[in-house]
Amino acid sequence: MWLLYALLGAVGKSYSGFFRKKMAGNVSGTMYMWLGYAAISIALSPLLLVSSAEIVSMLQQSWLVIIGVALSSILATVLNLQALKHEELSYTAPLNAFVPVFTLLIAVVFLKESLPAAGVLGIFIIVVGAYVINIKAGRTTKWLDPLKHLFTNIGARLSLVVAFGFAINTVLLKVLTDQSYNPFTILFVTTAVKWLLLAYVPFVKKDELRLVAKSNKLIVLGATVSSFAGTFFHILAVAGTNASYAVSVRRLEAPISVLIGWRHLKESNIRNKLIGSLFMVAGAVTIALS
Length: 290
Known about the structure:
Layout: H1 2-23, H2 29-43, H3 47-50, H4 52-61, H5 63-86, H6 89-92, H7 98-110, H8 117-133, H9 145-152, H10 154-178, H11 183-197, H12 201-204, H13 206-214, H14 217-240, H15 243-250, H16 253-264, H17 270-289
Helix pairs in contact: 1-14, 1-15, 1-16, 2-11, 2-14, 5-10, 5-11, 7-10, 7-17, 8-17, 11-14, 14-15, 15-17, 16-17
């Protein structure tokens, strides 16, 4: 079942990116998150009645991990919205394939694991995919220009930091699932903590809150539902298998997002982005198999 959950998580993450792109020009990252976390926390609030003992236990025993999950998610989401203001969805989404790269490097540096040969190959394939994505169609460039663009373009740099944040988030979520907590409980507690950390938002951004109230409610609802689906199914996938397997399948969000950007947002350079994103998915799978 973990494979199905991972696929559903990838679809949810893709559409979450689409709705974030639609909102990026009008709503700040903190307001977007406060609204989404509020809706999810309210929807899952019945857990307070049926799982209160597990919630209390989780808060007492794993409070530091919970805060780490919350902070890494908030930082990555804010920066993702900033990246979407500067670049197209079909460009930023494939760069999330660097999540398994950073996850592997975290394991090597902090967990003292060895770097397998297949892992090195996977990193190389992902870099090749990123290179292809940065080739501008119809333009003659020097062979190093796509790599330079990856590290000089502000949308690309932000996306790499986003990938690092989500890598930390995935590792910490795996810690919670390994402690046998219910996925619904994990989602409720971590989301509620994120909501509390952003409790100041409606007070300092009253004008923006009124603007949201007048905006397209379907976009706000779609962003909330897709974000919930992407996170929840990802937790189920991580709980059911090795974290690297779940993360690699989740990278299918890249080609899905490219197609969404082409179909719904009329974005450019789709052929190179689609080819590059498929390379990056192959690299993520190679890392998982290592």
